[in-house]
Each structure stands twice: as structure tokens, then as C-alpha cells.
Amino acid sequence: MGRKEVSNATLSVDQYRKKIGKQDWKKAKKDVKATKQLKDMKESAMGVKDVALIVTAFAIMLAAIYIFLYMYLDQQPPAK
């Protein structure tokens, strides 16, 4: 007779644990969704580093073109 009481108690404990697990899963789902949304927002937005990199690359390209044209056009024809 003592065994029935013990096994019945474990069933209620298991049910309680399942309820807690479901509640935690619901919380975890919400947290995961929020985290994914934040990550997607950060990935889609251009950061300061990206803008600085683009501007720097453009400036270097312009400087290279300017130097090339300066050296090419600066040459004078030989005097006779």
C-alpha cells in the first residue's frame, strides 16, 4: 500500500515539472524571438564602421587617380 502513495506522488511532481517546463519554454520562445529581431536589425543597419570604410576607400581611390593623372600630365615634352 505504501508503494501506491509514493508512485502517485511522483506523478504529481512530474506533472508539476511539465507545467514549469512549458512556462519556461514559452518564455524562452519570446526571448529567442526578441534576440533574433535585434540581431536582424543590427545586421540590416549600416554601422559607423561600414560608412567610414566606404568613405576611406573612396578617398584612397580618388587620391590614386589624382596622383596617376598628376604624374602622367606633368611630364613636359622634351625641348629641341
Automatic annotation (TrEMBL):
TM region positions: 51-73
A Pfam family this chain is assigned to: TRIQK
GO cellular component, as recorded: endoplasmic reticulum membrane
Protein family membership: Belongs to the TRIQK family.
Record flagged with keyword Membrane: yes
Lineage of producing organism: Eukaryota, Metazoa, Chordata, Cephalochordata, Leptocardii
Entry keyword annotation includes Signal: no
Membrane protein topology class: Single-pass membrane protein
Classification via InterPro entries: TRIQK
Annotated compartments: Endoplasmic reticulum membrane
UniProt-recorded name of the protein: Triple QxxK/R motif-containing protein
UniProt keywords, alphabetically: Endoplasmic reticulum, Membrane, Transmembrane, Transmembrane helix
Superkingdom, taxonomy of origin: Eukaryota
Predominant location category: endoplasmic reticulum
